Amino acid sequence: MLRTTLLASAAAAAALTAPTFAAAQTAGDVAVDEIVVTGSRIRRDTFSTPQPLSVVSAEAIRQSGNVAIGDVLLEQPNINPATNQQNSSGTLFLAGQTRADIRGIGPTRTLVLMDNRRLPFSDASSPGVDLNTIPSLMVERIETIAGGASAVYGSEAISGVVNFIMKKEQDGLEVDIQGGIAQEGDGEEFRFGFNWGGKFLDDRLNVLIGGEYANQDKIMQKDRDELYPGIRRDSRLTPQTIIPNSRSNTSPYATFQLTGGALGTARAVTLDVRNPTQVVRLSAACSTPTVQPDCQDEALFYSTIYNTLQAKSNRGILRTYVDYALTENIKIFGDVTYVKGSGYGIFQPAFSSAAGGGTMPVVLRGDNAFLNNPNDPTATALRAEWLAAGKTFTQGSTAQVGKFWQEFGGRDVKTEREQIKLLAGFEGDFEVLGRGVNWEVYGQYSELDGKTTSYGVPNVSRVQQATDAVMLNGQIVCRDANARAAGCVPWNLINGASREAVLWTSGIAVTDQRIEQSIAGASLSFDLFELPAGPVGFAAGLEAREEKSAFFQDPISASGALFFNAIGTREGQFDVVEGFAEVRVPLLKDVFLADELSVELAGRRSNYSTIGLGNQWRAVLNWAPIKDIRFRASEATAIRAPNIVELYSPQGRNFTTTAVDPCDRAAYAGASAAQRAARNVTCAAAIPGWNPATFESNFGPGRSSLALLQGGNPDLNEERAHTYQYGVVLQPRFIPNLQISVDFFKYNIRGQVGTIPINTLLQALCYDDASTPYDQNQYCAQIIRDPTGTAGSGRVGGVVEIIQTNQNVASVKVEGYDYSVAYGFRTEDLFQRDYGDIALRLDATWMYQFQLQGLPGQAYTQLANTINNATPEWKANFSARWTYNDLSLTWSTLYFGSMIANNAFQPNQLDPYMTGDYFRHDLRGSYRVNDQITVRAGIINLFDEYPPEISDNSIFTGTGTGSSQYDNRGRFFFIGANMNF
Questions:
Q1: Are 367 and 457 in contact (CB under 8 A)?
Q2: Residue 35: DSSP 8-state
Q3: Rounded CA separation 559/653 (Å)
Q4: pLDDT for the residue 783
Q5: Residue 457: pLDDT above 80?
Q6: Residues 6 or more apart in contact with residue 282 via CB below 8 angstroms
Q7: 3-class DSSP state for residue 530?
């Protein structure tokens, strides 16, 4: 029992157990029951799983101190950053969600199961399973397989499977409560849950009822001295160094761009943020339409004051599980889960840029009635600056307005979701020809209704009409006669708007969504016959599934009239019928050089209403020459059918901050000789009067976001993958309780659904390719330039938008190794005195290759070890746990290796080019007061480590790729208690 106890202790210490050997038991320990484990439908003991299996126990979930169960998974080295509390606030529809992403290949390629059954998607705008819909206190364990499992479970399992095994029995009442708070006094978290159950009617009826409520509060960037006001790159230099964040000429009051032009010729004034009645002429660095990196005029402010580090969310979950033994061999079961949750996205107010262009450009005209008010001292001061800039008080003399329209409040989004999942079925066993057969038949129905309400999204044309105020018949009115007839109220840009003006221009955007999933399945498993090495196991089954999804946007928002993404209606459905089979053949056992040798084969055939037929298979070899060592190898194919959003989304506008314009002077300065030669041709053809030494684009680091036109494609085909895994497990008997595993993994994915990577499109496919004339390059045609600076970009040669629609275009190659070491011992065995038990564990992933091919035939781009792909080359988790009687203390360290800050640049363009190594240390403890009560407490991020300073604010604020990877809230304390009655 010592071995089992110590290994379980090591597992809890790390908040996970890595490959299944960590939970393995030798024949001399305890009896091992056969169960169905993730990765196979054949019943077996956990030691003989066909692929590496990671396990998180119920105890580990509680002791982690995490309210969101997805954050527990994120500490596994094979799980990469995805949506969570740190970055969902910056999304329009996913606020409050947490998702899993194995290997960083994408949450849509990680299949999430509950008790080996598929879970429904949690959002119609971005399909994926929200892990927060799972009651964490009712989870018995979480099993994760990183590797192709589509042959066993179906589409979406390309990168692997996360399987939540739920509790089904409870004796009495269990109550659990936990609270936490950041050292800065914010980011409060709270969770309360209960489980109650028992057996009745002579133990034939089993009932389990449970639920939980959880709440997480927001954290703002301005409340962290380490992160506010933020940082940026100095784009004037090569290499670009990191400097303090520049102030913004997009003011909460107004900045007036009197004249454009380059540094030294541009002229701008602002209403002082310290006293908006004062008009201040800005310095040269702050007067250019896009401020210079060293702009620090105190009359301006830092726009990062609006940014969040952590979202606000709450959820309530109720689950009931019941089973009843109809006979000794047949049981009926039912499982009902109800979830209601809310998430809150927090955004900057709507804005207009001093450079012009964008979603809502606004100008102040020379004949504006408020500007020409002789009794307003602020207007008088502004008129003096107006004249000094050579402007006239006529309609045609204008100044672009840089302004955050805070009169409308923040563009905050409230997302509400309500979901119910109903499961009912029969399971049992019988004998045929002396062989036991286990069978199951079930039906599952799920539906989700969601609503988002987006506040502070003004009507764009009404704002433009209201701010264009003139004097008419002695009254200040809106210039546009049609607007006046519609009730337009003039907006005073100089002294602030009236309540009536705000009400006339304000808007609210609403979306509704509904998701339905219906599944019917039947399966059986049994031993076909006996071989000298053991029984030949077999499993087979059928499954039918229908998916429906609908997303509706209110008509005004869908028309593009509001300061909001015009998305429109997404609606579609598909169905699939699948058959699967699996066989395990033991070839040798207990013979020379073959303590065990077995092979396994699995296959699945699917018929989709969208893509037609699809086949998937897997082959596995397990060989243990002696008890101390085991080799395992698997090869599999997998498919992923395109989801409803990828197929049927209408084209709509989105935005990105990660794109870099190759024609920009900073990007050109750091380009290779071959790139410069190509850009001399292509950029000159694209941009009138292009000068590589002076051209500054309208997008890029520290600048406005870039508009994208994105949408679905009903002619998509399936993604296809070929995966390989080879590993070895060492359990040397001469070092008791030591276990080591090393596993190689490889993924080859073809026809990946998505858009062409933005920087691949800009660089390799367009401006770095002069072999095709610019006006004949189909990829350059997707980049819409503004030749006059009047089409929306705000400058000559700027980019108005880039067209990106879904295609089966990409290929991905991923390779690396997983390592795990676990060792436990009793101090009494070493010191002849009992000082407690020690459990040590190290799990690490070395992913040295993550290559993306944007289009067939193109060169692969290496994205491994890049922060903008969120794929560190090295990621590790170490833990040490000491247990003495009823007290337990655990130290854990999470490690991310140094990554490239932005692979769109060459090493000589950025300083520093690497992020540097990152360590986060946690300390957790628990104490069992008595048989009924256990208390726990801990400090997460003990040394108050913040994200590395790498390029801009996106990692701090949760808007950049991989922003959920680093802890941005700082030191966090939690305390909890578990009580059983």
A1: no
A2: B
A3: 11
A4: 94
A5: yes
A6: 249, 255, 268, 269, 270, 297, 299, 300
A7: strand
